[in-house]
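tokens incoming
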């Protein structure tokens, strides 16, 4: 499979409930979080190429698609609890996990303590 075969997120027709259903059949490592990556479109809807290079800030945001059964069980969570949930858009460090595809969807698997912040819209991350 080529990276061009990956299925991006179409914000014009986006439905979080339908997106989350794409991951209901997978089981992830109990302490990990599965992120559906937001990848900035490289072309406009009319086919104009906007940018052919990836910058340092590419692929550092996405939504929480699935959480392992043991997430938020470490001692340090007693003070600040479950601060993000499935369906939240988050930012995370690129070095925190591993990138791969699942059902042609670009995903990233990270430990439960890796997210840096919750954001309202991944298109605002630069």
């Amino acid at each position: 499979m080529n990276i061009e075969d990956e299925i991006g997120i179409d914000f014009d027709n986006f439905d979080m409930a339908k997106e989350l259903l794409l991951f209901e059949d997978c089981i992830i490592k109990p302490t990990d979080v599965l992120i559906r990556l937001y990848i900035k479109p490289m072309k406009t809807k009319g086919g104009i190429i906007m940018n052919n290079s990836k910058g340092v800030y590419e692929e550092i945001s996405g939504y929480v698609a699935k959480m392992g059964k043991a997430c938020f069980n470490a001692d340090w969570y007693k003070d600040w609890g479950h601060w993000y949930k499935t369906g939240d858009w988050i930012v995370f460090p690129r070095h925190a996990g591993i990138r791969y595809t699942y059902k042609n969807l670009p995903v990233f698997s990270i430990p439960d303590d890796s997210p840096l912040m919750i954001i309202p819209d991944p298109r605002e991350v630069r």
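note: The chain is about 10% helix and 25% strand.
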